[in-house]
Structure formats: structure tokens, C-alpha cells
Design a protein that fits this description.
It is a single chain. By secondary structure, the protein is mainly α. Helix 2 packs across helix 7 and helix 3 packs across helix 4. The N and C termini lie far apart (48 Å). The model has no long low-confidence stretch (mean pLDDT 84). InterPro entries: Papain-like_cys_pep_sf, Peptidase_C19, Peptidase_C19_UCH, USP, USP_CS.
């Protein structure tokens, strides 16, 4: 999948009447499925992802051969769920269908067992990202087989465009003033929400400078 121009704001014309005028679709608790419900709600109402899924951008280009059913593709599963959630004229729905596919996203997750929402979110994001990368590689091989030149597949996908970013961390020696910078690619940020009154406050705390001392401090080579 090449570069996709993402719609960052909601497109009301493709939502159901109830979703246009009413609250988000409620989800039944199937027994310790709170983690699943919260992640599905967050992903469904991430507007660029929702707009992408409502237009069937992934499933329309996914390989659906006889040995590869749409049910086995994590992104197809997520796309179908988001589309259903935003087009149903219901107040309440059950996530039973996506729960039955839980192992496609996270092999070690079990029905009716408490799981971590953040962990599941990362599994879903990573599964969809890896699916897009796999499709890019297949298309690259196909183009090479008909005479195209060999070209490396970059790691950019629609998932990375929506959720990805870079985080720069800097360690500065308070003695000599020397600085060491490191840049990492990220798909999320773990914020402290328990002791914060708002998202802005949580973000502010995350980026606050920290003094490393005693056993936590680094040894300066200078």
C-alpha cells in the first residue's frame, strides 16, 4: 500500500443517523472484556483510522485468496468492526465476533480472562501494521516478476502514519555540559493518568526533565 492521504476530521456523510446525532455505540461486557471494549472504542473513534476503514481502503486491496480468508486478516477484522460500529443504528452491540478472533491479534490472550488494555492495543496496532508491510512486500515481488526493478520496501504504512512518531531523549552531564541524544520510533506513549487531571497535564509530566543521581546516574566519559 503506497502513500494514503488521510482524512483527519470526521466525515459525517458516511456515518449512520444514530451515530451522527447520538452517543457512541455502547458495548456489552462479555465477561472480563472491559479491556477489549475500551480499545475498540478508542480505535473506532480515531477519526483518520475510522475514515480509512469506512471507505474499505484496506479490504479492497487485501489479498483474499482461497487459503487466506478475510477473517484471518487482522486489519480486515478491525475494518469490519469499525464500519459496523459507525453504521449501525443501534444503541448497544456485542463485540462477540471480534472476541472470537482475539488470538489473531494476540495468541496468548484467552476468553473471559482479564487482560491489559494497553497491551492489547499494541498487539492490534502491530498486527495491522505488519499486515500492511506484508502486502507491500507481495506487491513489490509481483512488480519485480513482470520486469520491475528491485526496490527495498520502506516501513511506512497507514497505521504508522496514524499512530507512529519519533521520540527524542537527551542525557546531559551537569558537570561538563556534554549531551547525548537518542531518537526512537514509537507507536504510543505511556502516560501517568492516575495522578493527572487532564491529558495536557499527563503530557507535561511525561516530558519533564529528570535529574539522575546515585544509582540511576550515568558515568560521563569526559
Amino acid at each position: 500500500m503506497g502513500f494514503v492521504e488521510l482524512q483527519m476530521t470526521w466525515q459525517p456523510s458516511i456515518l449512520s443517523e444514530k451515530r451522527k446525532k447520538g452517543p457512541p455505540l455502547g458495548l456489552r461486557n462479555l465477561g472480563n472484556s472491559c479491556y477489549l471494549n475500551s480499545v475498540l472504542q478508542c480505535l473506532t473513534y480515531t477519526s483518520p483510522l475510522a475514515n480509512f476503514c469506512l471507505r474499505s481502503k484496506h479490504s479492497s486491496s487485501c489479498d483474499t485468496s482461497a487459503s487466506k480468508k478475510p477473517r484471518d486478516c487482522p486489519f480486515c477484522i478491525l475494518e469490519a468492526w469499525i464500519t459496523r460500529s459507525l453504521t449501525l443504528d443501534l444503541a448497544l452491540d456485542s463485540p462477540s465476533k471480534i472476541q472470537s478472533c482475539i488470538k489473531i491479534f494476540a495468541e496468548h490472550f484467552r476468553f473471559s480472562r482479564q487482560e491489559d488494555a494497553h497491551e492489547f492495543l499494541r498487539y492490534v496496532i502491530d498486527a495491522c501494521h505488519n499486515t500492511c508491510l506484508r502486502l507491500k512486500k507481495l506487491r513489490r515481488k509481483g512488480s519485480e516478476s513482470v520486469g520491475g526493478g528491485a526496490e527495498a520496501v520502506n516501513g511506512n504504512t497507514v497505521v504508522k502514519e496514524i499512530f507512529g512518531g519519533t521520540l527524542q531523549s537527551q542525557v546531559k552531564c551537569l558537570g561538563c555540559g556534554g549531551e547525548s541524544n537518542k531518537v526512537d520510533e514509537i507507536m504510543d506513549i505511556s502516560l501517568d493518568i492516575l495522578n493527572s487531571g487532564s491529558l495536557k497535564e499527563s503530557m507535561h509530566k511525561f516530558f519533564q526533565p529528570e535529574v539522575l543521581d546515585e544509582n540511576n546516574k550515568y558515568k560521563c566519559d569526559k
